[in-house]
Amino acid sequence: MDKFRITGGRALAGRVTISGAKNSALPCMAAAILTGETVTLHNVPYVRDCLTQRRLLEDLGATVLVPDLRTHKITAANVELFEAPYELVKTMRASVLALGPLIARFGKAKVSLPGGCAIGTRPIDLHLEAL
Q1: Which residue pairs, CB below 8 angstroms and at least 24 apart, start in 81-88?
Q2: Which domain range does residue 104 map to?
Q3: Full-model pTM
Q4: Is 10 part of a structural domain of the chain?
Q5: pLDDT digits (tens, 9 = 90+) for 62-115
Q6: Residue positions annotated with a catalytic role
Q7: Within-domain flag for 15
Q8: Is residue 110 in some structural domain?
Q9: pLDDT tens-place string over residues 108-121
């Protein structure tokens, strides 16, 4: 394991930039469905799942502006669809995160069982129980 060992009587000072985490960004992106106001997310990681989530939101009718690589401005005022496109859902485990916001907004939702990588069982029963 990497570590820093600091010896001496000097105080530490400075800045550390922390990279964004997709497991934080993806639920926030899905939650934007709940409001018609613009939601601005900073430090969104540039990874495939975040790009797929962006496409999913756009396919549902949201506008997603990306003024720089790590900032997303999501406006879901024009979202009128409650069915997530299978072609996107099958590629991403986190697509199930759209289920709750769609049900909250429309009273119904249609989201296929999520796909994604095969790193072991990751049931969605907790999501379903929450509904």
Answers
A1: 82/106, 82/108, 82/109, 82/110, 83/109, 83/110, 83/111, 84/56, 84/59, 84/60, 84/109, 84/110, 84/111, 84/112, 85/56, 85/59, 86/112, 88/52, 88/55, 88/56, 88/59
A2: 22-130
A3: 0.79
A4: no
A5: 999 999 989 999 999 999 999 888 888 888 877 788 899 999 999 998 887 766
A6: 117
A7: no
A8: yes
A9: 988 877 665 555 55
